[in-house]
Every structure is written in C-alpha cells, then in structure tokens.
Design brief:
The complex is a heterodimer of chains A (222) and B (467). Chain A is α/β, with parallel strands linked by helices. Chain A is built from 8 helices and 12 strands. Chain A has helices at 10-22, 33-42, 59-68, 84-92, 105-123, 152-163, 171-179, 187-201, and strands spanning 2-6, 26-30, 47-51, 75-79, 97-100, 126-129, 132-135, 140-143, 146-148, 168-170, 205-210, 214-219. Chain A has a 5-stranded parallel beta sheet with strand order 2-1-3-4-5, sandwiched between helices. A 4-stranded antiparallel beta sheet of chain A has the order 6-7-8-9. A 3-stranded antiparallel beta sheet of chain A has the order 10-12-11. In chain A, strand 6 and strand 7 form a beta hairpin. The mean pLDDT of chain A is 85. In chain B, 51% of the residues lie in helices and 19% in strands. Chain B contains 8 helices and 14 strands. The two termini of chain B are 16 Å apart. At the A-B interface, helix 1 and helix 4 of A face helix 4, helix 5, helix 6, strand 9 and helix 7 of B.
Chain lengths: 222, 467
C-alpha cells in the first residue's frame, strides 16, 4: 500500500515517513502542493496524507484541485487548527478523514489502513481485517484461510461491522441490517447474533461492546 | 433598556414630548370650556330676561284701580295661559306700591329695592319654599300712581331650558380635546417608532454580532450616533478577527514542531535497544506529550474566550452524536485501562460552538478516565431538560470532596493526588465553555454517593449577548 505524504515540516514529515514505513506502507514524501500534484499525476498512490498548513497553495487548495480533477483517492488531512470551520471545510471538500496535530504514529497508521480498506471494499469485493477476509460478492467469510460458517443474519452483522472496522457501529444500524429478513426483531436479537459471532471468530478479531452505543470490530493484532 | 431611569437622568423623550404637549393642551381645554360656557349662557340669560320683562309689561297692563281705590292686577284667563306657555309655567308676581307696600298678588315674591328708578331691574333670589328664582322688577306709572311689579321665574325652568345647549357645547369641547390628546399619544408613539426599533435592534444583538448597523434605515437625527457605533463595531470586529487569527497561527506554530518531536521520539524510543537510553527517551517523550497537551489546552482556553467567538460559530449541535464521537475517541484508552466506557443518550440539540462543546466533553471524559481505577465505569449521558438540555459525565472513581469542588475549576489547579499528565486546565476550560454557552456547570457525587458526576445544564435557549 503506497502513501504520499504532503508535509513541509521536516521533523513531522520524516517521522511520518519512517513511522508509516515501519507499519508496512510504501511511503513517498513531498513538501508542497505543486510537487504533490506532479507526483499524483505520474504515480499511483493508495492514499494521500495532506497537511493543511503548506507554503503557498495550502492543503485545502490541493484537495479542492484533486477532487475537481476527478481524483478519488482517499485523503487524510493533517491539521494544527481545531476550529470547526476548518474541519467542515476539509470534509466538505472531499477529505475522507482528518487528524489533529500532535498525533501518535500508531493512530496515523490505523487511520490510513482503515481508509484504504474502506476505499478498496467499494471497488473490490474483498474486505480484510487481520486474518478475517470477507467476500462481499459471494457473501462468504474466511478466517485464517479457512471457510467460516455464518448464517445470513450473522453475515449481515459481520459485514456491517467490517465495513466500518475500528469505528463504533450503532446497535440500531445492525438491527436495520438484519431486520430485512424478519420484522419482529428486538435489539436483544443483535446481542444474540453478536455473541454467536464472537464464539465463531475466536481470538483473531474482536467485537467490542460499547455500552449504550453499539459495537466495534477490531483487528486484535493491530 | 428595561431598567428604571435613574434619579439624575433626563426623562425619556416620550415623556418629555407628552409633558410638553399635554399640559398646554389641558390648559387650552379649560379656557375653551369657560369661554364656551360664557358665550352660550350670556345671550341666553339676556333672552330669558327679555321675555320675563315682556311678561312684566303684559301684567302691568292689567293693573287697575277699582272703585274705592282698590288696586287689582288680575289677568284674564287667555292672557295667563299665553304667558304660561311663553314662560314655561304660570308666572308668579306681586304688585307693590311706590312706598314698598304690598298691594296684591303672590306675597312670596319680594318687592323692588328702595333704590332704582323707572324701568327694569333683575336679581337672583331665594324664594324659600318656591326655590331659587330670577326676579324682574318693573317700575311703572298706572293711573297717576307709581307701582313696582315683581315677576318671578323659577330657575329650575330656566335651567331645564338652558341645560341641553350648555351640555352639548361643553361635551363637544371635551370630545374634541380627547380626540386631540389621542392624536398626540398616537403621534408621539408613531414618531418615536424608528428610535424604538433601533433600540430593539441593538438590544437584540449578542456581543458576538459585530456586523455594522444599517445607517440608511434610521432617522437622520440619529444617523451620526449609528455612524459612531459602526466605527466602534468595526474596531471590535477587527480585534476579534485578529485574535482568532493569532490563536490559529499560534496553534499551527506550536503544534507542528510538537507533533514532529513527539513522533521522532516515538521512533527513537522504538529504536533504542539499550534500556537506559530507552527510559530517558521515554521520559522526554512523556514530558513532550504533557507540553503538547498544555499547549492545546491553552489554545482552547484562548479560543473559548467570548471575544474570540462570533455569532456565526453558534450552530445546532447534536449532543448524542457528540457523545458517540467522544466515546469512540477515548474507547481505546478506556479499554487499555480496563474501564467500561459507555453512553446513555436521548435525542437532543443545543445551540453552541461545536468544537468547543467537543472540547468540553473531551475534557470531562479525560478527567473521568484519569481518576477512575481499572474495573470502574465512566458513563456519558445527555437528554432534554425542560426547554433546554443536559449533558453529564459520571465516573465511579474516588470522587472530589465537596470542599475541594470550587477550587478544581481554577486554572492550573491540580486535584490532590492527581495522577498522570494533567495540565490543571481541563475544568477551567470546561467552566469557560459553559459560561460562553450561558449554561450551568455542577460537580456532584455519582450514584450512591460514589465517584463524580460532572453535569452541564443548558437551561435557556441559545445565549443572546455575553453571559
């Protein structure tokens, strides 16, 4: 997975480059929006990590230009500002996520992984979280390269959680995902299916309960 | 604008206008009433007296000296009837001799005074049982003798005839004046309306609405005032924008090197094979993390100042969504510490600055996670409260002693036995954000008297003006 870092600050850029390389990404780095455009025009990247505070044309201008040109690669915005307006601007312009400075390297890597996974699931039919692989087209799952036997409702819940892996998925959303087969389901049904899934998934991936909100699927290894 | 005028303060323009107009108008009414009364009553009295004099002359024509010197003044029936018709009642009269001796007629009607020559004289007299009357005296010669004839007309009759006209005239005067007063009241109110509208517009603004006022929509008299106000507003707006820009620039200049150093140290820590070096790098990184946190808190504090926020920053904020995002943000840390982090939310919106409310919840959750031991629980709640909303973060940690609660809101105050990397600014930030939103903040004990419950109540609808 290849990432382009657009950051002018040497200290930050160098740390990001090394940190992400250690997390298993192929990383290139440029220091300005102009260089970023040139790099994106000639090379393929899976994700761009863009700082808002660039010299001359800023990160938001770069993002706007990319989206106008029809480029849909995922963009993770780095910002030192925390005002709402900046974030709204970034998301309105088509940023996929944002991170506020200072950040922790593992979190940056996790966000990059999640964004790339989400984009890929939209284009390819396969979704991988740790040792769990979902084939969205055939609606089958594999765990440790072995077929995983799940019912249709269990599949729906797993798919829902996997598409937003690392994020809290509301219980209501899971209920809606399985309600199509049976109108008389109660929220308790979700709990039943989640506990069955947990038993089947074992240690490889974890479905965590977030009290009062829902569930979160985590790659236990990450 | 609603307070009572102070003692030394000039009266309101409306009151001044009304005093200046209504007092002279009231005087004018009194003069008009007097004048109209005299104009109506004078000529009428003259007319009545003339007709009374006519009656006296008619009666005098029937004074006869009969045989034996007996003087009579008997009116034939037809004449008496005619007079009664003309006067409204049968006239009462008495004939007196020149020396004032009663001759004939109604003795209750007094004779003419001693003085006075021939002809008519009039007087108002009280006739006792017959009531007040107008009396006409007529001195005349009949058959070579002088007589004085007194004819009385009860005032009741006169008044009955005069009253409708007087009443109508004076009523008309009063009605006219009431209409004038009504026009004055309406006119003053309407005339002051642009001034009041301007006042309401100013009063309705919050301290964050610094847009200039529209000078073309105010009367020309107060235009200079509006121009001066606009100059002031522009200055305030410029300084607010400058502060916003300064804080944003400071944020960037502080955070970027901090982020770089922190990430570099993180890598260095991983690379450092030798344990003593690793421990030192670890310590430096911990210190840097604390510095970064404090810088962030200080910047938040600077931006939570009322003057750094503008009216357009206030938007409807979905509290359950905010809580969900905050829980997601802190979930890993909570799981790492073995704390059960959860939420109990009911749909509710408040008007506020979204990122500041996010900082508020972040700080409360951060505190709760800091002070709650492993195995504990932290719960975020929100829901409607009357017309407003509440938001609370409850933990089952050691809690804060009641006597210490007011002090924990002070800047840089660290609770006794506070663990970790706190800047001592968290609750000060919470307090500032709460104030900016016109909300109330309270620290209580949690359920069953254990732990801490930090509760924010948004009682009033959105804040207008600086709290």
């Amino acid at each position: 997975m290849r990432i382009l870092i657009v950051e002018d600050d040497e200290l930050v850029a160098d740390a990001l480059k090394r940190g992400l390389a250690e997390a298993g990404f192929a990383v290139d780095r440029v220091g300005s929006a102009e260089q970023a455009e040139a790099a994106l025009a000639t090379e393929e990247f899976d994700l761009a990590l863009v700082d808002i505070g660039l010299p001359k044309a800023d990160g938001l201008a770069l993002l706007r230009k990319l989206r106008r040109a029809g480029r849909d690669l995922p963009v993770l915005i780095l910002t030192a500002r925390d005002g709402l307006a900046d974030r709204v601007d970034a998301l309105d312009l088509g940023a996929d996520d944002y991170l506020t400075k200072p950040f922790e390297l593992p979190e940056v890597a996790a966000r990059c992984r999640a964004l790339i996974r989400r984009t890929r699931s939209a284009t390819s039919a396969r979704l991988t979280i740790g040792t769990l692989t979902l084939d969205l087209k055939s609606r089958t799952a594999e765990l440790n390269a072995q077929p995983l036997d799940v019912t249709r409702r269990e599949w729906s819940i797993l798919e829902c959680l996997a598409l937003d892996a690392g994020k809290v998925v509301r219980k209501e959303k899971l209920l809606r995902a399985i309600a199509a087969w049976d109108e008389e389901l109660t929220p308790n049904a979700v709990e039943v299916y989640v506990s069955r899934l947990r038993a089947k998934l074992g240690e490889a991936v974890a479905i965590r309960t977030v009290r009062g909100l829902g569930y979160r699927l985590d790659d236990s290894a990450a | 604008m609603t307070q009572r005028p102070d003692a030394g303060r000039p009266p309101s323009v409306a009151r001044r206008l009304l005093t200046l107009l209504l007092v002279p108008l009231g005087g004018l009414l009194l003069i008009a009433l007097l004048f109209d009364y005299l104009v109506v009553v004078g000529p009428m009295r003259l007319a009545f007296d003339r007709s009374l004099a006519d009656a006296a002359m008619v009666i005098a024509a029937y004074v006869h000296e009969g045989p034996g010197g007996r003087v009579t003044a008997e009116l034939p029936r037809t004449v008496a009837t005619q007079l009664a018709l003309a006067q409204g009642s049968r006239p009462r009269y008495a004939l007196y001799a020149a020396d004032g001796q009663f001759v004939t007629g109604d003795p209750a009607v007094p004779g003419p005074p001693e003085t006075g020559g021939a002809g008519f004289s009039f007087a108002m007299l009280d006739l006792g049982a017959a009531g007040r009357a107008r009396v006409a005296w007529y001195r005349f010669q009949a058959e070579s003798r002088s007589f004085g004839l007194a004819v009385a007309e009860p005032l009741d009759d006169r008044e009955a005839a005069t009253r409708p006209l007087v009443t109508a005239t004076l009523t008309l005067d009063v009605l006219q004046m009431l209409a004038v007063i009504a026009f004055v009241l309406i006119g003053v109110r309407q005339g002051l309306r642009p001034l009041l509208a301007f006042r309401d517009e100013l009063a309705g603004r919050s301290a964050r609405e610094l847009e200039p006022l529209d000078a073309s929509r105010v009367p020309v008299e107060i235009e200079p005032l509006v121009t001066s106000l606009n100059a002031l507003l522009t200055r305030a707006r410029t300084s607010a924008e400058a502060q916003r820009k300064f804080v944003a620039d400071a944020a960037h200049q502080l955070r970027t090197p901090l982020a770089g150093m922190q990430a570099q140290l993180e890598l260095l820590e991983r690379d450092a094979a030798a344990l003593p070096v690793r421990a030192r790098v670890s310590a430096v990184r911990e210190g840097l993390k604390r510095l970064a946190h404090t810088a962030h808190q200080l910047l938040t504090l600077a931006r939570a100042e009322g003057s750094a926020t503008l009216e357009r920053d206030f938007v409807p904020v979905d509290l359950p969504r905010l809580i969900e995002q905050t829980v997601t943000l802190h979930l890993d840390r909570a799981l790492g510490k073995g704390i059960d982090l959860g939420a109990e939310t009911a749909a509710v919106n408040v008007r506020g600055v979204e990122w500041l409310l996010r900082e508020l919840v972040n700080n409360l959750v951060d505190n709760a996670l800091n002070y709650t031991p492993a195995g504990g629980a932290v719960t975020l709640r929100c829901g409607p409260l009357g017309a407003g909303a509440f938001l609370e973060v409850e933990d089952d940690g050691p809690g804060i002693a009641p006597e210490e609660r007011p002090r924990v809101l002070e800047r840089f105050h660290r609770a006794s036995g506070a663990p970790g990397t706190g800047s001592g600014l968290g609750l000060a930030i919470v307090s500032d954000i709460v104030t900016l939103h016109g909300a109330q903040f309270e620290l209580r004990s949690g359920h069953g008297g254990r732990g801490t419950r930090a509760r924010v109540e948004f009682r009033t609808p959105p804040p207008r003006g600086r709290p």
